[in-house]
């Protein structure tokens, strides 16, 4: 079952208009959310990021889009799909309803919620080989628009095809200033000695929820220095560790970039702290 505008509908019976603006113009935003045993991880952060994304897209937020209403819609669907006693991935998409071409003729908002079972309730460290490369064919634009999760993901799609064709596990994306911004599916952290760097949002990095939680964790660790600063491609091979963060994988260590191989000691330690934070909500 899926939730289509507040109605539970069988997936094979759900339909959207061919003039849906999310499909036609990328006029949509979404949140990827992790639910564990009927509890939404970091719900407040997801909710406020969704509201901020809708405002950036100049969507008129419906009066009933309260945290309580959306949480209930999500958890009702999770329960309906018998995922309330396990781990689930939830995608909440909000789109401007059809009407007009580039200039919309309506301010009404529709939404879709889908679920999918996850194999593990909490984050496990993947220590398998994980090789990445730079994707240089197209650039992320630095600025506010790139920080939100909109349906405009063409660069990520092309980068993933490039990775698949060249047998890489992931790719780094760069902005028009040739700074490394993020991976195809998450934020980037670079470790060198006792310093941890991550690209700032002003470089076009996604305003990731896991990124935010890791920043909170790292700031409490006195032996580490945190910098939100631009990262040059030349710094990647000088790092001790590189890892990617997102709400589904948690922390994904990178084992190889070009000729350089990396450790995962700090990534492992931070992942345990992230699991504690997730349990505590």
UniProtKB/TrEMBL annotation:
<keyword id="KW-0032">Aminotransferase</keyword>
<keyword id="KW-0808">Transferase</keyword>
<dbReference type="InterPro" id="IPR043131">
    <property type="entry name" value="BCAT-like_N"/>
</dbReference>
<comment type="similarity">
    <text>Belongs to the class-IV pyridoxal-phosphate-dependent aminotransferase family.</text>
</comment>
<dbReference type="GO" id="GO:0046394">
    <property type="term" value="P:carboxylic acid biosynthetic process"/>
</dbReference>
<dbReference type="Pfam" id="PF01063">
    <property type="entry name" value="Aminotran_4"/>
</dbReference>
<dbReference type="InterPro" id="IPR036038">
    <property type="entry name" value="Aminotransferase-like"/>
</dbReference>
<comment type="pathway">
    <text>Amino-acid biosynthesis; L-leucine biosynthesis; L-leucine from 3-methyl-2-oxobutanoate: step 4/4.</text>
</comment>
<dbReference type="InterPro" id="IPR050571">
    <property type="entry name" value="Class-IV_PLP-Dep_Aminotrnsfr"/>
</dbReference>
<protein>
    <recommendedName>
        <fullName>branched-chain-amino-acid transaminase</fullName>
        <ecNumber>2.6.1.42</ecNumber>
    </recommendedName>
</protein>
<dbReference type="InterPro" id="IPR001544">
    <property type="entry name" value="Aminotrans_IV"/>
</dbReference>
<comment type="pathway">
    <text>Amino-acid biosynthesis; L-isoleucine biosynthesis; L-isoleucine from 2-oxobutanoate: step 4/4.</text>
</comment>
<dbReference type="GO" id="GO:0004084">
    <property type="term" value="F:branched-chain-amino-acid transaminase activity"/>
</dbReference>
<dbReference type="InterPro" id="IPR043132">
    <property type="entry name" value="BCAT-like_C"/>
</dbReference>
